[in-house]
Amino acid sequence: MTDTKTLAAAPRHDVKVITALRRFAISISILNIAGYTFLGFEQPWLWPFIAVLTAYVVEIALEAVSARGEKRMPRYAGGGFKGMVEFLFPAHITGLAVNMLTYVNDRVWVMVFGVIVAVGTKWVLRAPLKGRMRHYMNPSNIGITAILLLFPWASIAPPYHFTEYLYGPADWVLPAIILVLGTMLNAKLTGRMWLIMAWLVGFVVQAVVRGLVMGTSIPAALGMMTGVAFVLFTNYMVTDPGTSPSKRSSQIAFGAGVAAMYGVLTALGIAYGIFFATALVCLIRGGYLWGLHFLAEQRATSALPAPAHRDSPVQETAPASAPPPAASVPEGAAPRPTAVALSGDPCKDGTCFHGRCAAERAAKKKATVPV
């Protein structure tokens, strides 16, 4: 049995990240409770439990396999019950999100498949970032994308899914609450406000451009921004701290890239473009991270000094301008080595015929002879 004392410590999340994940998990849990109680969620009430349980099992199993392969402690070990709960926050969020945002009729195994893909890709699609291998595909998004690609009859949850039984001012209260809580969460903990602003500005721009170029209705395209699903996507999916950049310029590029990709996919007549756009941009970012890694390795390799060749030519005989053999050297003079490794520079090796070099060599030779 492997001695746990020899295992490396498990990597830990930053305190802010753990706090953000905790609030994400609490928020989505409350939303699901409200959804099945009075908002109008149409999936069977048992499915969220199946989704969460599936996510837990896959997360724990793959973490155990990964820890064994990397010879380290699993991230769920050593922290007691609190450590296990914190470890399962991402799986909890992913399981509830995949079930909440997809509609697969009565085929629960399709939903389970989406959850397995969502959690499993975290250990398959990885890229080096800041000295560690990090997953770059948004888990919930890639799970939903896999369902939509492989099962064409499946769909995302309908727009009325979140407000079916709300009337009057309540139609605006729920999006407002989600917007305020999400904005506070991203502003204080995840630091993804630049990404959100770039995504929103980019979404408006692509709607206007499509309207001017293709003649589509600009108000209808912008009307999507008033839905609960759009608010949830903006504050809780595209801003996933584990798969979105933290640098300001990178956040702007990421958010604007998702909006631009959505505009292109929608213009091509591809449905559910918001999920496909996010998946494609995450995939592009993963390739970019690998490209930076290989470029850094190439630069580091080229910066290393060239190794000395073991078969370098060795001067076995003295050059034409060398002094006579040791037998004819005056008594007390320093003997000249009979084998000298050449550096390749005639001036340094003493084999050139330059007048200045010959004078310097004669002066050095004279200085070594005792008076």
Mean pLDDT: 84
Coarse structural class: mainly alpha
Largest sheet: 2 strands, antiparallel
What's the gyration radius in Å?
33 Å
The beta-strand count equals 6
**Beta-strand content:** under 5%
Overall shape: elongated
Please tally the helical runs, counting DSSP H or I stretches of 4 or more residues: 13
User: Low-confidence parts lasting 5 or more residues at pLDDT below 50?
Assistant: 314-318
Helix content: 55-70%
The spatial strand order of the largest sheet comes to 1-4
Cα separation of the termini: 76 Å
SSE order in H/E notation? HHHEHEEHEHHHHHHEEHH
Structure description:
With 371 residues, this protein is mainly α. 61% of the residues lie in helices and 4% in strands. The chain has 13 helices and six strands. It has helices spanning 15-39, 47-70, 80-101, 108-124, 139-150, 170-190, 193-214, 218-223, 228-237, 248-267, 273-303, 346-349, 355-368, and strands at 102-103, 126-129, 132-135, 155-156, 314-315, 340-341. The strands form three sheets. Strands 1-4 form a two-stranded antiparallel sheet. Strand 2 (126-129) and strand 3 (132-135) form a beta hairpin. Helix 1 (15-39) runs antiparallel to helix 6, helix 2 (47-70) packs parallel to helix 4 and helix 3 (80-101) packs parallel to helix 5. The longest helix has 31 residues, at 273-303. The protein is elongated, with a radius of gyration of 33 Å. Mean pLDDT is 84; it is low at 314-318.
